[in-house]
Specification:
The protein has about 120 residues and is an all-alpha fold. It is about 50% helix and about 0% strand. It has five helices and no strands. The two termini are about 45 Å apart.
Length: about 120
């Protein structure tokens, strides 16, 4: 049973008790079984095949999220050195990384360059 399908009275401000919760759940359960009274919506449980079919999309979303996180971290690190126009997603970004200069005109520190290559 989907939790949002259980009707809750918003007119009466009563103390929340386990007895009230139990009454609401019983009423919703009986309505779902076909007993006349309040209505309820049942949540469909996906099959193993349906759940497995969602896996590639979930993995893709995870990879895209990881990429966004890494790019944002790189951009924020570079902005601390005064570099704002660099695009880490370009194919030749690793080659151009060695040529980048800070706002003072010096090369990026060695550890910063290494951390970008490691990610």
């Amino acid at each position: 049973m989907h939790s949002s399908s259980i009707a809750v009275s918003r007119e009466h401000r009563r103390a929340k008790t386990d007895r009230l919760d139990t009454e609401l759940l019983m009423r919703a359960f009986l309505a779902g079984c076909g007993v006349k009274g309040a209505t309820a919506a049942w949540a469909a449980i996906p099959t193993i095949e349906e759940e497995d079919a969602k896996r590639p999309n979930r993995e893709h979303e995870k990879l895209v999220g990881d990429r966004t996180r890494i790019v944002n971290r790189m951009k924020s690190t570079l902005s601390r050195f005064g570099i704002r126009g660099f695009k880490p997603t370009l194919r030749k970004a690793d080659e151009k990384l060695g040529e980048l200069r800070t706002a003072e005109g010096t090369l990026l520190p060695e550890n910063t360059r290494r951390s970008f290559v490691a990610t």
